[in-house]
Design a protein that fits this description.
Methylamine Dehydrogenase, Chain H; 14 strands; four-stranded antiparallel β-sheet
């Protein structure tokens, strides 16, 4: 964490290293009071933004490196890994409540569509999936593209 002030040099307030391996995904949660990180060490960590102290840790959250995180609601987040798995986590229980596996390669991006309670996900395998949280199933998946799909946004 750094402090920026006009006309003053950059000031480092603290350094945090919550993971053994590289951090690949970062999201603010709890109205910006905590930061959620996903790592190549397969863990998800929540840290206090003021102190950098670890609030919660899910070791071995996935069987492969985590590279994407998306906040779904105040109490749920989704994570995607290098093996094409998407997991949905209940932050109150610190447990996995949904798992989707339709992709053959890494999850490159995800977005949550609140109105339909679905997660859209793109993958290095060149497909887009629509994952229904209510039915806990993959609703549909696109045809394979010749190129990797790297991001998704609802327009």
């Amino acid at each position: 964490r750094f402090r920026y002030a006009d006309g003053l040099p950059l000031e480092r307030l603290f350094v945090a290293k919550p993971h053994k391996d590289s951090c690949r995904a970062v999201r603010f949660v709890d109205s910006g009071t905590a930061i959620l990180t996903g790592s190549a060490d397969m863990s998800i960590v929540a840290s206090d933004v003021e102190t950098g102290k670890v609030i919660a840790r899910l070791d071995n959250a996935h069987d492969d490196a985590i590279n994407r995180l998306v906040c779904l609601t105040e109490t749920t987040v989704a994570s995607g890994d290098d093996d094409g798995y998407i997991k949905v986590w209940d932050t109150r229980q610190r447990s996995c409540c949904n798992t989707f596996h339709r992709h053959e390669d890494y999850i490159s991006d995800m977005t949550y569509v609140a109105g339909s309670n679905q997660i859209l996900a793109t993958s290095g395998d060149g497909t887009l999936s629509v994952n229904n949280l209510r039915g806990n199933r993959v609703k549909s998946q696109s045809e394979f593209s010749e190129d990797e799909l790297l991001s998704v946004v609802v327009m």
